[in-house]
Amino acid sequence: MALIVQKYGGTSVGTIERIENVAEKVSRTRDAGNSVVVVVSAMSGETNRLLDLARGIDQNPTQREMDVLVSTGEQVTIALLSMALTKRGCPARSYTGGQVKILTDSAHTKARILDIETERMRADLDAGRVLVVAGFQGVDEGGNITTLGRGGSDTTAVALAAALKADECQIYTDVDGVYTTDPRVVSEARRLDRITFEEMLEMASLGSKVLQIRSVEFAGKYNVPLRVLSSFEEGPGTLITYEEEDQAMEQPEISGIAFNRDEAKLTITGVPDRPGVAYKILGPIGESNIEVDMIVQNVGADDTTDFTFTVHRNDYEKALGLLERTAADLGARSVSGDKKIAKISLVGVGMRSHAGIASRMFECLAKEGINIQMISTSEIKISVVIDEKYLELGVRALHSGFGLEGAQEETISS
Amino acid sequence: MALIVQKYGGTSVGTIERIENVAEKVSRTRDAGNSVVVVVSAMSGETNRLLDLARGIDQNPTQREMDVLVSTGEQVTIALLSMALTKRGCPARSYTGGQVKILTDSAHTKARILDIETERMRADLDAGRVLVVAGFQGVDEGGNITTLGRGGSDTTAVALAAALKADECQIYTDVDGVYTTDPRVVSEARRLDRITFEEMLEMASLGSKVLQIRSVEFAGKYNVPLRVLSSFEEGPGTLITYEEEDQAMEQPEISGIAFNRDEAKLTITGVPDRPGVAYKILGPIGESNIEVDMIVQNVGADDTTDFTFTVHRNDYEKALGLLERTAADLGARSVSGDKKIAKISLVGVGMRSHAGIASRMFECLAKEGINIQMISTSEIKISVVIDEKYLELGVRALHSGFGLEGAQEETISS
């Protein structure tokens, strides 16, 4: 008998009909002989309704009371889902974060989980009950209600799975798994049966927003097998785990292609090539809370250097102003920028043991006449920046060039 | 410095604007040098919205989960009111029933309060904070959320006032106090400055639905001075206390006139006058969970007796059917009934020391040509049943006959 933690987000429990649908899925999982803990979010729209009420009173309401307010959203869902389960003859009991209890620090609206008491949950599970737990919330040492911040229900599910040593943590979403790339761009994109935590983190941070990064990190840290599935369709979804020894040998080189078009590029040329120059350029950017993603530095002629980096497009104008001031200070030759860029990344743990991925990537893009403006690599990722208008073409060429449509044999997930 | 418990019902906190209005009142009470504990209900309409969600899943949902669900209504209000107070520079902190904690038995949806922890509240009050407590809810020994049933917020307020030994428990409603009778029937009806717990109980149970009976009983039991005031208008309201020794002498004979028209009368005549006959008649009625209000028995001629009683109009047909069966068993002469009756009651603790109230009452009604069908008396109440069509006429005649328009000097409540 396996212990499964299932998490259903706001869209999955957005109406009474959908809550009934969730009850059906939970009930079937239990009937198959499993112990089940369910974590739910607020019904979609409910959190915004509550936030609107608060803003009607104060644009910056006290955070302790914000947590008291918004935590009611999940409390409504746990009660309704428990009713729907009980109606089906499936014994169930709801728990708020405080009742479990999920102990957090006192950082209201963005609290972190410190500890989870499992004794009471164990007793319920031993008695054959399904536990329905409110996601996204906890309680601090003083008994004050806290919330984990937006998207925190995924974290609750993973933390419960870790505390209970669950066999699997299943995250139900509106997609049926993690894909080799965005199916809206490449129609041949294929659902992955498996992906490693590291790959998932690279995919997620690059814009494949299937899971909250924090919950993936958490699952990786505590080695909780994580599965992404659809609330609305049947299917095995995608299992996120550490690579197993015997699988590492036959790991595909590339698992997926991530991309985004929300960055902008800034270049400063003819900077005197002295120690500390990188700090002088990026210091003011960082102090203005602008996040820098890729950084490339080339040595130029006559003891000067060229320096290029990317920021979020929303920060482009601000960063350009700062950079122009720095250029004047340093006596640099010129400052330029470009908002119409896109980043494409190949991600795969197989990359570690296979040489030549980078050159094949560049070849693929060259064949399509796509010029590469920047390159950056990590152990399991290669990213390039290209002209935004070639994004779709580039992603499709790479997807096909690395045989992602069907190279990997489909394996049935258990 | 006085300790005041204030309770605001659903209508008083029904919109953001009204919550701001409540914050204003609470803030002023604190600024006047008082310690304040506020008890609030769910925003009007919210409880019904939640009940509709539950009914969408199950017509008879599990009661434990009903409590988890509906208790979110008050939790939303405590958060919003605390925000509104904090915005005004009035330090405030919200508490759910479980956080206080208000310990109840485990009778979900109709729990009774067993104990209230005051330590944490005292610390907040000592620190100058206003406490905003969710009405209507508590927590049982096992940490499960319970609710006190509809109208339970009044009970929460009184119980908190008793536990904290508050100087006054103020119940804010949509009326500005307790009246000598219903102002919709008698335009000269006058707000009472004071009324005793006993009188209030008689008035409340007779249809003056200003306060929940249970909360009045509770306040009387723990001797908590209770004040009824309007959320929307300024004014001293009506103070409900025990009569004080020095006041008893000048107590008015009659404090108010209560009435209702939701009863029906049933009569069985020519019943053999034997011991146990009353039980034989009323036994089947009680077993069918029909509540009997007034009972009158007259000895008739030839060793038989006539027996009349009243029930709620909704139970009339059912009671009549039962009575006809009993009549056949007992060999009674006839069974008759009347749904078009009304009951009028004079209420007043002064009645104890003044003879002749009853005869003056009958004289008043006789002058208007109103026939009295039944009479029943208690220590502080005389009730008569008359033809429904004379109800308004009778109430007005009595209100004027006993000088209720202005006989009592207005005293300024402190």
From TrEMBL, chains A, B:
Similarity annotation: Belongs to the aspartokinase family.
Organism the protein comes from: Thioalbus denitrificans
Any GO molecular function: ATP binding
Record-listed ATP binding positions: K7, Y8, G9, G10, T173, D174, Y179, R184, K209, V210
Binding site for substrate: T47, E74
Protein name: Aspartokinase
Keyword Zinc-finger among record annotations: no
Pfam families, sorted: AA_kinase (PF00696), ACT (PF01842), ACT_9 (PF22468)
